[in-house]
TrEMBL record:
GTPase that plays an essential role in the late steps of ribosome biogenesis. GO terms for molecular function: hydrolase activity. Belongs to the TRAFAC class TrmE-Era-EngA-EngB-Septin-like GTPase superfamily. EngA (Der) GTPase family. This is GTPase Der. It comes from Sphingomonas morindae. The lineage of its organism: Bacteria, Pseudomonadati, Pseudomonadota, Alphaproteobacteria, Sphingomonadales. NCBIfam families: GTPase_EngA (TIGR03594), small_GTP (TIGR00231). It holds the Pfam family KH_dom-like. GTP 1 binds at residues 11-18, 58-62, 121-124.
């Protein structure tokens, strides 16, 4: 079972942290008193809020003291709780306004990787309004006005917590799934060779293996089944999969050829990296783009290999023309690696295998939520989302939920109206700036649920 998401309550002494802890836990666990500094150790409990469940930490009041003193040691405990939490709930006293120590806590929280929700406690009545307005200057987003003592503002607190709790649940599920099926560093590279008939796929496999393992010849369509061969390249394990040639669906009349095409696509499903082999003497054709598109739709990493390079004419213009046509024809992924090879002579095959291992590494890459959201905040600041109909789309944060292929969930409000062009802007930024290269990246949009909406 996945662990519960964790929430750490943090703030200077005597702002109502323990009162809020007791309300969310539903019991009077933490001691509450008007004197500051009652809480000294981290206290834990299971919090509940309108159906949300989470592990809650009540921390000691944050004080700017020597680490060797008692207040200083309490601060170290608080910092540890925030590092371990999925989200920090920074509570300040709205009636007292923002103090220098609140500003110090905010500076420290802005430098941490943990997402922060700013909670303006004791916000009942007009006396709290000046303090709420002051808190915008802390740089932690919009404050959530609450009253921990009277239970006011819990619906707004729910809405603020929900995307963070959902993100943590997704990450926990993804981590569980990945730990069960994660590839070991020395696991064989599952490499499928696909392409049109007679592109030289079986010749390529034979050249890599150094033996005539597969039947080859001038006739198209000799290979009918997907053939898997276990092999080693420079001490690294590879599972090579040769497949039947793929023609246009309209030209496939023979029942056996239809079965072969289905078998090829199953081989793609089980591969990690797919090499689309092109015949350089024929260039790039529409069927090649359809095959490449299908590979990327299945979430597999793709390499393009121009075969028969040793007999190709006008090599420079051919190479540049293929790259340009791929960038134009494969709108979901630009910059797919293109390599010139010769299955007959062995030219370029070591570079092809090296690129395949590098591509699998990018396809399996995971970035931390902190690193991802630092990039995300900069990307949104540089190019804010549009406001369709004059209503702002608010993007909160993004998290990676799985690898192989890299998949991300973007949390925000009104995300159903986020244009495809802006989604493509984010996906291209993820690839370019976070080390994913030209592998397929998936982005799912998610808006917070409304707990007050009645089911129809």
């Amino acid at each position: 079972m996945s662990r519960l998401p964790t929430v750490a309550i943090v703030g200077r002494p005597n702002v109502g942290k323990s009162t809020l802890f007791n309300r969310l836990v539903g019991k009077r666990i933490a001691l509450v008193d008007d004197r500051p500094g009652v809480t000294r150790d981290r206290r834990e409990g299971e919090g509940q809020l309108l159906g949300l469940s989470f592990r809650l930490f009540d921390t000691a009041g944050f004080e700017d003291e020597d680490p060797q003193s008692l207040p200083g040691r309490m601060r170290v405990q608080t910092e540890a709780a925030v590092r371990q939490a999925d989200v920090a709930l920074f509570v300040f006293d709205a009636r007292a306004g923002v103090t220098p120590l609140d500003e110090e806590v905010a500076r420290w929280l802005r430098g941490s990787d943990t997402p922060v929700i700013l909670a303006a406690n004791k916000a009942e009545g007009r006396a709290a309004e000046p303090g709420i307005f002051e808190s915008f200057a802390l740089g932690l987003g919009d404050p959530v006005p609450i009253s921990a003592e009277h239970g006011e503002g819990m619906g707004d607190l729910f809405q603020a917590l929900l995307p963070h709790i959902e993100r943590a649940e997704l990450e926990a599920e993804a981590a569980e799934a990945e730990s069960e099926e994660e590839a070991q560093p020395d696991a064989p590279l599952k490499l499928a060779i696909v392409g049109r008939p007679n592109a030289g796929k079986s010749t390529l496999v034979n050249q890599l293996l150094g033996e005539d393992r597969l039947i080859t010849g001038p006739e198209a369509g000799i290979t009918r089944d997907s053939i898997a061969v276990d092999w080693e390249w420079q001490g690294r394990k590879v599972r090579l999969i040769d497949t039947a040639g793929l023609r246009k669906r309209a030209k496939i009349e023979d029942k056996l050829e239809k079965l072969s095409a289905s078998d090829t696509m199953r081989a793609v499903d089980f591969a990690e990296v797919v090499v689309l082999l092109l015949d350089a003497t024929r260039g790039l054709e529409a069927q090649d783009l359809r095959i490449a598109d299908r590979v990327l739709e299945e979430g597999r990493a793709l390499l393009i290999a121009l075969n028969k390079w040793d007999v190709a004419e006008n090599q420079s213009s051919l190479f540049n023309g293929v790259k340009a046509a791929l960038d134009e024809g494969l709108s979901q992924v630009r910059g797919v690696p293109v390599l010139a090879v010769s299955a007959a002579t062995g030219k370029g095959l070591d570079q092809l295998l090296g690129a395949a291992f590098e591509t699998r590494e990018a396809w399996s890459r995971r970035v931390s939520t902190g690193q991802l959201n630092r990039w995300f905040e900069a990307a949104v600041e540089k190019n804010p989302p549009p406001a369709p109909g004059g209503k702002r789309i608010k993007l909160r944060f993004v998290t990676q939920v799985k690898t192989r292929p890299p998949s991300f969930v973007l949390f925000g409000t009104r995300v159903d109206q986020l244009p495809t062009s802006y989604q493509r802007y984010l996906i291209n930024g993820i690839r370019r700036e976070l080390g994913f290269g030209a592998v397929p990246v998936r982005l799912t949009l998610r808006a917070p649920k409304n707990p007050f909406k009645t089911a129809e």
